[in-house]
Each structure stands twice: as structure tokens, then as C-alpha cells.
Amino acid sequence: MTELKAQLTVDGVDKTIELPVYSGTEGPMVVDVRGLTAQGLFTYDPGFMSTASCESKITYIDGGQGTLLHRGYPIEQLAEHSTYLETCYLLLYGELPSKAEKEAFEATITSHTMVHESIADFYHGFRRDAHPMAIMCGAVGALSAFYHESLNIENEEHRVQTAIKLIAKIPTLAAMCYKFSIGQPFMYPDNSKSYAENFLHMMFGVPCEESNIKPVIARAMDRVFLLHADHEQNASTSTVRLAGSSGANPFACVASGIAALWGPAHGGANEAVLNMLYEIGDVSRIDEYIKRAKDKNDPFRLMGFGHRVYKNFDPRAKVMKQSCDEVLQELGLEDDPLLKIAKRLEQIALEDEYFIEKKLYPNVDFYSGIILKALGIPVEMFTVIFATGRTPGWVAHWHEMISGPYKIGRPRQLYTGYSKRDYVKLEDR
Ligand code: CMC
Fold first, then answer.
1. What is the pLDDT of residues 113-170, one digit of tens each?
2. Kind and range of the H or E run holding 224
């Protein structure tokens, strides 16, 4: 941290206020405004457009350059050389594991993939047509009612155990949502399989047959999880941190993150992309939808385009696009009509003045929607896949926060309601 200072003068306040300015290892300088409260002032920043809510060492994004680093490692390199579980280790522990550490971590995660048998009873209480994200919010929160032996958040060992349980069990809960919706029996995890393979086995396997997961599909699934693993202080991660700042248990905090992720402006966008492609229905109707997206009086937005931080290509989208092309080719799906609409839409939007000027590039959700469809994942499960992949990010941020000094998150407000006034009796209104 540096000794730099910012000076603030405010009309009506007869002194100059000095505020410390910090430089991180990367990124813009940050003005520490905490001292303003003592001067009777707050800052106003709805949507956190200019506010760093915490200090973190986990992930760095340069939206202008299109850079994403996990613990310093570029996402492109991790996607090419690493695996999802190795990236989970990196996020949680801060370094890439040695061979022995990697094997031990994989073995630990694998040994926690089952969920308490009574959790299945919860699922039977839901409607069959419930949205899987609705079930996930409840089921993940309910984990704290089953695994309360490791919920002392002051205990480092408990924190790590809970992080491991979350990463291990969420794919099992996710696949159970799908099985319940189609009336098939829940599949127990098969711990001889890799993480991604096991998830696909629990999704698509049946007890009466040997499951046969194509390696190309398992590899693509692992990469989808990896590309979603963390994204610094996005809405769901900030929600997890805020919930955690009150001392809430990590299962409850991750359940709150899942709820925040569900919205179409965040993780729900991958599902919204596919629904939009279905609605467009034919390449001949793309112009009509582009026109609607540009019309200020029409709330329609091109789902899968734009990002709060990336004003250049989302680096995850670049890798996802490449993966998408490979998978479509290997599965012989290049001629799928929906995928044709997606490709044409992408091309038109990339050449359109409106999208260029506003720096609205396709984001990770645009390509993940397409790839997940090609992998045979049902559309309602798309955001659940995002939640599964994002779990290590949520737990790493929660763990980082709880491991250091932290304060309960308590934003203030610019109040514009009535000033004090006297109660009016019913007969006088
Ligand atoms: N289609 C058409 N216009 C758009 C779009 C879009 N997808 N996204 C932004 N704009 C316009 C918007 O109307 C505004 O125009 P103007 O300046 O004339 O008012 C301008 O671009 C800036 O938009 P904003 O809403 O102020 O930007 P934001 O940073 O608050 O929102 C966003 C970012 C991702 C919520 C937004 O781009 C969006 O709604 N995109 C579609 C949903 C989506 O794909 N979300 C996934 C995000 S990536 C994965 C994740 O992090 O979850």
C-alpha cells in the first residue's frame, strides 16, 4: 500500500478532507473513503460502478484488455493446461498443487460426492416442474441442516471441510434436480470417474445400464466448469461475501449466491440465450431482434451480449467459442438450425455500429448456452451448471474474507423520502 493521498473539498464543508489512496498489484488506484463518515459524508454508488467492496488476492480482471487471471494465471492457460479440480485447488489455496497435493485433493473431493440419504426426501416435496435453480436454492441451504458438525466458521479446518463438501456435493444435488424433473431414479455418484464424467453419469446414467460418457463430452464439461470457476466481485460472489459478513454459515451463504446468480442479467443469461434463440426461430428474423435490442423504448436486450466489466472480448468467451466449435465439429452438429441462428447473430452483432460503439461483445453465457445444448444438457439446467462451476469461487471468497479481519457489510443510502412528519389519524385522512 502507498502513501498517496486524495483531497476532497465539498461545498458547505469548510475544510479539505484527505483520503488515503492505495495501489493494488494490478488495476486502478483506489481511494479509501472510510474516513468520510466521521466527516458526516457518505459516497453514493448504486450498482457499485466505482466501488471496491473488499481487498482480494484471488482473481483479477482487466475489462479494457480482456484479461482474467486466477491467482495470477491467465484463464486461457488454465483452460488449456489445467483441469477444473486443479483450478479449484488454486482458487482455494492460492498456488497450483504439486502432483501429490493434486491427487490428495481430488481423492478428498471424490470421497465427499454422496449426499445424506434424507436429502432425497426434500426433492420429493417439490413439484416435478419446479425450476432446478429453485430446488438448488433450497437444497444447498439445507446442507447446513445435515453437515453442522463442521460449521464453526472461526475454525480453519471446518472452513476447508465445508468448502470441500460444497465443491463435492453440488454436482450431485444438481443432477438430482434433473433426475427428479424427468421422474428417473437419482443416480449415486461413481467415484471411479472424474469430476465432470461423474456429473454427466449422474445426469444421464440410469441404474439398469452402464453409463457411457464420451471423453469429448466429459472434457468439454470440465472446461465449462473451469471457465465459470471464479469472476471476482460479481453479483453472486458479492452476495456470498455480504451474507458471510454477518457470520452466516457457508452453506447458507452459497445458497444466497445461487439465488443472486439465477437472474437473467447474471447466470440466468445462458438459459435466456437459448430461449431467445428459440424465440427468434429462423435466421430471417434476426434483423427484427437486432432492431428491438437497439430500440430504447423496447426492454428487449440481446441476451449473452455485454458485460459490466469487459469492454473488450470476454476472455472466457474466446475459449468457450473455441471449445464450442470443436465440440460441434466432433459431434457433427454444425448444421443444427439453432446454432446457425446463434452464429449469424454473433456475426451481425459484432459488425453492428450500436454494439461496437457500446462495446457489447458476446459474453461467456452466449457460447456456454450453445455448447451446453450441444452436450445435451436441458436448457433449464444451464444456470445450475454455472452455479456448480462457480462454487469454488464463492467458497474461496468466503474463506478469504473470514480468514482475515472483516466487518459486517452494511451499505448506507441517499435518503429521498419524507422528512419527519406527524401521524394523521384515520378519520382525518
Ligand atoms: N443488448 C442491447 N443493449 C444492451 C445490452 C444488450 N445485451 N447490454 C447493454 N446494452 C446497452 C444498454 O441499453 C445501455 O445503453 P444506453 O447507454 O444507451 O442506455 C448500455 O448498453 C450500457 O448498458 P448497462 O445496462 O448500463 O450496462 P451494465 O454494465 O449495467 O450491464 C449487463 C451489464 C451484462 C447486465 C448487460 O450488458 C446485459 O443486460 N446483458 C444481457 C444479459 C447477459 O448476457 N448477462 C450475462 C453477463 S456475463 C455472465 C455473468 O457475469 O453472469
1. 999 999 999 999 999 999 999 999 999 999 999 998 889 999 999 999 999 999 999 9
2. helix 215-227
Spatial distance between the Cα atoms of 416 and 413, rounded to a whole number of angstroms: 9
What are the C-alpha distances in Å from 1 to residues 25, 32, 56, 217, 271? Answer: 9, 11, 13, 46, 42
Closest CA to 73 of 91, 50, 54, 85: 91
Ligand 1, closest atom to CA 314? 48
Determine whether 181 is exposed, middle or buried from the number of CB atoms within 10 Å of its CB (0-12, 13-18, 19+): buried
Q: Whose CA is nearest to atom 14 of ligand 1?
A: 358
Give me the residue label for grid cell 472434457: 219
What would the pLDDT profile of 298-322 be if each residue is shown by its tens digit? 999 999 999 989 988 899 998 988 8
Residues near ligand 1 (Cβ within 6 A): 234, 265-267, 269, 293, 301-308, 358, 360, 363-365
Q: How far is the CA of 329 from the centre of ligand 1 (A)?
A: 31
| Catalytic residue numbers, as ranges | 266, 307, 365
Report the alpha-carbon distance of residue 138 to residue 131 in Å, rounded.
11
Indicate whether this model's pTM tops 0.85. Answer: yes
Residue nearest to ligand 1 atom 21, measured at CA: 358
Q: Which of 301, 302, 363, 370 to mutate to test the pocket of ligand 1 (most atoms within 8 A of CB)?
A: 301
Q: How far is CA 398 from the centre of its chain?
A: 14
